[in-house]
Design goal:
This protein is of the alpha/beta class. The protein contains seven helices and 13 strands.
Length: 302
């Protein structure tokens, strides 16, 4: 059985200023998702599942999914603020969705095989999808054996502002021991990496770190654990306006309770994307160069 790729495409892209998932960035008007789907198919993924919001479903189907319908099986699921376990209700004033792991839970009824999870608005490179697909094929029929594809921090920095990344602590055996969300990572005036702490002060960020870019590999049992973790999360946070249920939080909990092992697979790929509107020109140029270099054809899907 071929693995499935689950693409998180429900975010607003507030810092960028619009629905960047639909922004045409390639020479032929391709979105970043188009390149991810193309790379995934080359790597051997057999199905794509998108999680989106109902309010841009028509645009998404017309501008994105229509390109792929003759190339791969597609499913669409929806993240909704009211999609909660029985007995729970959101604060009436809450407007934010419930976070990345809530989005992942939306796939539980359509995914039965090992699956990868990625962001819709990040370019990960062909090597990343090959690494992810190879791992997922190796864990078919197993439980509690997951992976994360880690990037060198130097390959994930934006020139136009600080970025948030998950700092990975890895055992000598290559297993993730914990992932810590770090914010506003950027190069300081002296050229060294710094991060902004919760109190507003800055601190050095390790130059040799591997970080999470939200590239995960799971087997379907992950849904079962996530459902239980979500109920616990809601029992403490259902009335909150901004609390979010994140993938790293669930992964950390599973690791610390010996419910899974999570292998960190290192990729040589260089990330790029459109975290900020000012990132767009460089991203357009990078895609143009990748096509010129023969990494991608001029037309991805025809």
């Amino acid at each position: 059985m071929k693995p499935t790729l689950f693409i998180l495409a429900a975010g607003m892209g507030s810092r960028y200023g619009g629905l960047k998932q639909l922004d045409p960035l390639g020479p032929g008007g391709e979105t970043i998702m188009d390149y991810s789907v193309y790379d995934a198919l080359r790597a051997g993924f057999g199905k794509i599942v998108f999680v989106i919001r109902h309010d841009f479903e028509d645009d998404f189907r017309n501008k994105v999914i229509a390109k792929y319908k003759d190339h791969v099986d597609i499913d669409v699921v929806f993240q909704d603020i009211n999609n909660l376990p029985e007995g729970f209700h959101p604060n009436p004033e809450r407007t934010k969705p419930w976070g990345t792991n809530h989005a992942v839970l939306m796939g539980k009824d359509v995914i039965r095989e090992p699956f990868g999870v990625i962001n819709a608005d990040d370019y990960y490179g062909p090597e990343t999808f090959t690494i992810l697909a190879d791992f997922l094929r190796s864990v078919e029929g197993k439980k509690g054996e997951y992976c994360m594809v880690g990037f060198k921090i130097e390959n994930t920095i934006s020139e136009n502002g600080g970025v948030s990344r998950g700092l990975c602590e890895v055992s000598p055996e290559g297993l993730l021991t914990t992932v810590t969300e770090c914010h506003d990572i950027r190069r300081g005036a002296d050229g060294h990496l710094v991060q902004t702490l919760a109190d507003g002060s800055t601190a050095p960020f390790p130059e040799d770190a591997y970080v999470s870019m939200n590239v995960w590999g799971f087997t379907p049992d992950y849904f079962d654990y996530s459902e239980k973790a979500f109920i616990k999360f809601l029992s403490e946070n259902a009335d909150q306006l901004k609390a979010e249920f994140y993938i790293p939080s669930v992964v950390n909990d599973m690791i610390h309770n010996n419910k899974c092992t999570l292998t960190v697979k290192q990729t040589p790929s260089k990330w790029f994307g459109v975290t900020f509107a000012a990132d767009r020109p460089a991203t357009v140029e990078r895609f143009r160069q990748l096509v010129a270099d023969g990494v991608y054809p001029e037309v991805l899907f025809s």
